[in-house]
Amino acid sequence: MRYRKIPDESIRRLPVYLRVLLLVSEKGTQNISSRKLADLTHLNPNKIRKDLSYFGPFGTPGVGYNVAELIKQIRAILKLCVERKAALVGVGKLGSALLGYPGFKMYGFEIAAVFDNDPKKIGKRIGNITVEDISSLGGMRKRKINLAIIATPARAAQNIADKLVAKGVNGILNFAPCYLKVPKKVKVITIDIAMELARMPYYLPTYC
Amino acid sequence: MRYRKIPDESIRRLPVYLRVLLLVSEKGTQNISSRKLADLTHLNPNKIRKDLSYFGPFGTPGVGYNVAELIKQIRAILKLCVERKAALVGVGKLGSALLGYPGFKMYGFEIAAVFDNDPKKIGKRIGNITVEDISSLGGMRKRKINLAIIATPARAAQNIADKLVAKGVNGILNFAPCYLKVPKKVKVITIDIAMELARMPYYLPTYC
DNA sequence: CTCTGTGAAGAAGTTCACAGCA
DNA sequence: TGCTGTGAACTTCTTCACAGAG
């Protein structure tokens, strides 16, 4: 495989592959073909082979991919092979939901600290985590937290992002409906829930 | 403007434009240029003009776009000009958070019914809505609900999607981490929160 | 002058089609 | 035979660059 620029879209799909691979792995499946993977993900098998080929020849012609091996490889590509600690900022309804969200574990994420600015919430224990004052964002480096999840109102998000970046965070999952300005080295992924829903009616047959 | 296939990516950006237009509209701004819109959205001004030009010549050379007019036009394109009612299925932590989420209103969405299968939750009042038994999904058509939000565990999602489609729902916002098989006429948008986070480490400088 | 609208060029992403290995 | 890996073709999306309107 010669070097080529790897499409962001391919990176976006790797977690999809990982999810179904973990699923079939639990069922004891040893090998899986790109066609079977395509069935399970509803993607094109050519696309899947191409995506994987950017990183190496992981498969065996005539056989397919070894499930355990491919899981290991995708985890390595995505750098999921170490446990990652994230700070959650904002313990409103959405923040609380994320705190209890079981899905993060499968990719090796742990919410290791929780912050809010509401005095009524600070000091409160949720599960086995104590809500800290947002002004005490320090100690992130010491606690090896370099990811953060922002679940605050939009008006607070930029200010919090600035503070997080200053404290060494270099990846932010942002649920606030706004654009966050950060240094180039910091990666922001924004999930704007209402905005996702907003484009739905366009695809519906309903007239206006 | 001659007919061309409109990129899905352009549709995806229309709600972004709408959001910032509503924002500047509140501040009393009358007109806005593609360059200013680009500043506010962090997108390329050429791209913005191109996106809008697929639907008509909304701007005035030398002046820009009339904010109120463009808001009206984008709402029409996205078919957001009527109030849309959605059913929420699954009143766990995430479902509850979505029920109280204020962001839907700005695009004209209302959660008009809530369903769960937990007897402890059925009949309970949350805000001014009563949780209904999931087996009584009927009456959706009568209540003019044709959108649904699935916030259940993955194992339940497909079954619920089937029922929703049978009851006339033709747009589903799915938070369960799984692929939903639905008829072609039904539009599904899946938000897999953990999966979004899963591709973050790839972009970080951290070694594995 | 400023700013839109748009054909044309360029970049990115997908699919095809097949050589070659098991 | 079955399946991977991959150049090449194709499609989709983005950016450029500029004519023309205000």
Distance between the first and last residues' Cα of chain A: 51 Å
Report low-confidence residues of chain A grouped into runs of 5 or more. none
Biggest sheet details of chain A: 7 strands, mixed
Q: Any idea what the radius of gyration of chain A is? A: 20 Å
For this structure, the quaternary state is homodimer
Largest interface: A-B, 62 and 62 residues
Question: What do you see in this structure?
Answer:
2 copies of one chain form a homodimer. By secondary structure, chain A is of the alpha/beta class. Chain A is 35% helix and 20% strand. Chain A is built from 7 helices and 10 strands. The first copy, chain A, has helices spanning 8-26, 34-41, 45-53, 67-77, 93-99, 154-166, 193-198; strands spanning 31-32, 59-60, 64-66, 84-89, 109-116, 125-126, 129-133, 145-150, 171-174, 187-190. In chain A, the strands form 2 sheets. The first copy, chain A, has a 7-stranded mixed β-sheet, with helices on both faces. In chain A, strands 1-3-2 form a 3-stranded antiparallel β-sheet. In chain A, helix 1 (8-26) runs antiparallel to helix 4 (67-77) and helix 2 crosses helix 3 (45-53). Chain A is globular. In chain A, 35% of the residues are buried. The model of chain A has no long low-confidence stretch (mean pLDDT 96). Chains A and B meet through helix 1, helix 5, strand 8 and helix 7 of A and helix 1, helix 5, strand 8 and helix 7 of B. The structure holds a DNA duplex (22 and 22 nucleotides).
